[in-house]
Amino acid sequence: MNSGEVDLRVSFCGLTLNNPVMPASGCFSYGREMKDFYDLNLLGAVVVKATTLAEREGNPTPRVAETPAGMLNSIGLQNPGVSRVVREELPYLRRVAAVPVIVNVAGTMVEDYVAVVEALNHSADLDAIELNISCPNVKCGGIQFGTDPTMAADMVRTMKCASRYPVIVKLSPNVTSIVDMAQACEKAGADAISLINTLIGMQIDIEKKRPLLGNGIGGLSGPAIKPVALRMVYEVAASVSVPVIGIGGIATGRDAIEFLQAGATAVQVGTANFTDPYVCPRIVDEVRSWCALHEVARVRDLIGAANPRARRVTDG
Amino acid sequence: MPQTEVIAQEAIADGVYRMVFRAPVDLKKNGYAPGQFWHIRVTDSFDFTLRRPLSLCQADLDNNTVTVVYRAQGEGTRRIAAKRPGDALDVLGPLGRGFSVHDGDGRVLLVGGGIGVPPLLELAHQLAAHGIRALAILGFQTASQAVLLDDFAPYAEVIVVTDDGTLGERGRVTDFLQPERLQGVVRYYACGPTPMLKAVKDVLAVRGLPGYLSLEERMGCGIGLCAGCVHKIARDGVVRPLKTCREGPVFPAAEVVFA
């Protein structure tokens, strides 16, 4: 089969993506920098940085540290606040890319999340929101909603009422049962589930005898967490009917195909963008070549191929 | 892909290396500034997730090559130091905002500390090309750490300072900023560890001397995606954490806020 004959399109939340690869929130800013590296239309979609109601300065530095095959970050949701995002960033992104835009929404209190979503309702420059209830780097808020199924469900219900856009819920791996979390979110009306966010970790500066990161703890990401992410995607895909978006350590086409076969409808690429800014279009090319080589005419036929219990969901 | 290759690699001091590589862009066409950096991938796998930012030390326009001088203190930089001429190198750059040379300046001051000294060499070279005289106060921990002193000689009057007095003057660079030494100096440029930058700024701000600081923050992506490397900058009446990889690493000293 010619690689040109492979149909890479996937669908979820009423959106059709030209391919299943998108950058993960926080690893792409708002697209201004990356468009100097490649045409953003090569992406399946774009997920922009977590956006809060008010501007946030984030945590003290150092905020990043390398770990074996991974990294820790404790950025702390630094962002210009939703009004500037709506006024300056999203219109810009719409101009430079004709692909679906997903806005990651974060906050401290439920009211903050609602206010962000209401501000986004006034914008036409996005296609879905990704509810961030899994950021490990902000005190009170964020992750607390993501570790208690009841609180998560309440949050999802509130967001579904407030948002005119589809709601993807991004889950934290720092829980006892990822399946309980996913099912609670699905029952509360989530349109899709994305996972995983970072695993909470730490590094110590032994000369200074104190944690290296300014915030003490941070979120672990990168290839080191891929097996954990894959296992969680596999379990969740087998337990919910809504589409699942796989995230965690994806750096190659083969990695992406693993997640698709585990039951993910699409994938997000995070840390690998820092290692190689060209990684997303390269993954798209590698997925296409793999499909051609293996006579897979439609990439969506791979979804759940290795996971018999995964509900094969596409709304296309 | 920004693939290029290593031209030369040598140890020039204890744990300090000089590497020459083919520039990933046409330096003449693209342009570059002293104080900008190159973001170098450690290996071609994803075992090392973060690139290493290495400052421009010298640019050779005739051969379109770049020299960086860096300390191999961690596993990643040791891997880079193990690369040999002909080895492939994945390099992004030149990145960030570097030092500005101001035509019309008569005499300026350069202050470098440790591995902050190499980025000042290209600056000294450009200052000389603009007919600006420079006094370079270059500080090192000890004699075995001192680098590039002969390279500075054609472009600047050099004062070498070591913490232990094993080479040049004994003391800290800030011990050599007396007004009589800085006669005619209208601007300063500093690169080195954060405590040194803060001390230099404190001494020279009192005298109303404008200058630039090249900040050192732990960097992630190097291209403005991750917001890992921010530093507080006072600009237009607002203090904001700005990305040193994109808005810096060089900032006007007056804007830099130290905790």
- Count of distinct structural domains of chain A: 1
Strand content of chain B: 35-45%
Gyration radius from CA atoms of chain A, angstroms? 18 Å
Q: What integer is the average pLDDT of chain B?
A: 97
Write down the overall geometry of chain B. Answer: globular
Radius of gyration of chain B: 18 Å
Question: Stretches of chain B where pLDDT falls below 50 for ≥5 residues?
Answer: none
Name of the level-1 CATH class of the largest domain in chain B? Alpha Beta
Main sheet of chain A: which strands, in order across?
Answer: 3-16-15-10-9-8-7-4
| Number of H/I helices of chain B | 5
The fraction of residues assigned to DSSP E strands of chain A is 15-25%
Q: What's the SSE pattern of chain A? A: EEEEEEHEHEHHEHEEEEEHEHEHH
The main sheet of chain A comes to: 8 strands, parallel
**How many beta-strand elements of chain A?**
16
- The total of helices of chain A stands at 9
Identify the biggest protein-protein contact and residues per side: A-B, 37 and 30 residues
Describe the structure.
The complex is a heterodimer of chains A (316) and B (259). With 316 residues, chain A is of the alpha/beta class. Chain A has one domain (3-302): Aldolase class I (TIM Barrel). Chain A has 9 helices and 16 strands. Chain A has helices at 82-96, 110-121, 143-147, 149-162, 178-187, 226-237, 253-262, 272-275, 279-293, and strands at residues 10-12, 15-17, 21-23, 46-51, 64-67, 70-73, 101-105, 128-132, 167-170, 192-195, 199-202, 204-205, 210-211, 217-221, 244-247, 266-269. In chain A, strands 3-16-15-10-9-8-7-4 form an 8-stranded parallel sheet, covered by helices on one side. In chain A, strands 5-6-14-11 form a 4-stranded antiparallel sheet, with no helix packed on it. In chain A, strands 1-2 form a two-stranded antiparallel ribbon. In chain A, strand 7 (101-105), helix 2 (110-121) and strand 8 (128-132) form a beta-alpha-beta unit. In chain A, helix 2 (110-121) packs parallel to helix 4 (149-162) and helix 6 packs parallel to helix 7. Chain A is globular and about 55 Å long. Chain B has 259 residues and is α/β, with parallel strands linked by helices. Chain B folds into 3 domains: 3-95, Translation factors (Elongation Factor Tu (Ef-tu), domain 3); 107-214, 3-Layer(aba) Sandwich (Rossmann fold); 216-259, Ribbon (Dihydroorotate dehydrogenase B (pyrk subunit), domain 3). Chain B is built from 5 helices and 15 strands. In chain B, strands 10-9-8-7-11-12-15 form a 7-stranded mixed sheet, with helices on both faces. In chain B, strands 1-2-5-4-3-6 form a 6-stranded antiparallel barrel. Chain B has a two-stranded antiparallel ribbon with strand order 13-14. The model of chain B has no long low-confidence stretch (mean pLDDT 97). At the A-B interface, strand 5, strand 6 and helix 8 of A face loops of B.
